[in-house]
Hints:
The protein has 203 residues and is an alpha/beta fold.
Amino acid sequence: MTSIEHLILEVADPAAAETFYADVLGLDDRVRVRRSDAPTTGFRGFTLSLIVAQPANADALIDAAVAAGATVLKPAERSLFGYGGVVQAPDGTIVTVASSSKKDTAPAAKRIDDVVIQLGVADVAATKRHYVASGFTVGRSFGSKYVEFEAPGRTVTMSLLKRKALAKAAGVAADGTGSHRLVLGGAAPATDPDGFVWEAASA
C-alpha cells in the first residue's frame, strides 16, 4: 500500500517554521520545511489536521500555536462531531486541531494522535481514481464528497474533499492561485490532478 511518509511545507523562513512545527506543535519528522519563494495567494488548497484525544489537548495545542504567532481562523468549540478549532500558522499554512470527544478524561497534554493532510480538490471521484491507480487503499469514502485513504503505522493520513467545502470548514474563502507550498513525501515523483506534487520519501 502506498503511503505518505512525511509532508514538506515550503516556507519563506525555514528556521522559524522548524521551531513552530517541531518545537511548538511537536510534529517530529512527519512535517518538514524547506525554503521557497514560490508565489501564492489566498487559499492554498489544503489543511494540516491534527487529531487529538480530548478537548483539553486541542486547547493546549491551539494556545501554544497562538502564543507562537498563529492566527485564529475559527475559535475552538464543541460541534456535532466533537471539538476543535482552526489556526493559520505564521508561514500561512492552515492547521486544524480536532477531537472526536467532547469531554476531557485526563490532564491536558500537547499529544497528537494522528496527522491528516486534507486536500481540497476539483473532482473528488476523479482524484480518488488517480490515487487508487497509484496504489493507495481507500479507508472510507462518501461518494463524491469525501475520501480517506488508509495510512499504516505513524504515516500521514490523506483525505480528499471538494475545495470549496474544505475552505468553508477552515473558515476562509476558496479562491487562491499559485503554489500549494506543499510537497507530499512517500510515492514516486509525480503531480496529481490538482497540482499537488509528490517526491520519493528518501529525497
